[in-house]
Specification:
about 65% helix; about 0% strand; single chain
Length: about 90
C-alpha cells in the first residue's frame, strides 16, 4: 500500500506541500467515487491520476478544484475509498 509520502515523492511533491485543513464534504465524496471506478487498475494508478489532475488544475490556476482534489487524494490514501466508508460519512 502506498503512503502519502510515497505517492507525493513519486510525483515530486514535498509532503509539506500537501496540507489538509478541510473536512471531506459530499462534493469530495462524489469526486472520490468517480475515481473509485479506476481502482481495478490499482490504488497507485488512481493516486497518480488524482495527483496529475491536481497539478493540471494548479497549472490552470483553478485553486479551488485543486484543493478539492487534495482532499480526495487524502481520503483515498487514508483508506476511505470503500463504498461503506463513503456512505458512513
Amino acid at each position: 500500500m502506498s503512503s502519502v509520502e510515497q505517492c507525493a515523492e513519486s510525483e515530486r511533491m514535498a509532503t509539506p506541500e500537501l496540507p489538509l485543513c478541510a473536512l471531506p464534504s459530499e462534493r469530495h465524496k462524489l469526486l472520490l467515487e468517480s475515481y473509485r471506478f479506476n481502482l481495478k487498475r490499482g490504488k497507485p494508478s488512481v493516486c497518480k491520476m488524482i495527483l496529475e489532475d491536481l497539478w493540471r488544475f494548479m497549472d490552470l490556476g483553478a485553486w479551488e478544484h485543486a484543493a478539492d482534489l487534495l482532499v480526495v487524494h487524502r481520503m483515498l490514501m487514508s483508506g476511505c475509498a470503500s463504498p461503506e466508508c463513503l456512505r458512513a460519512g
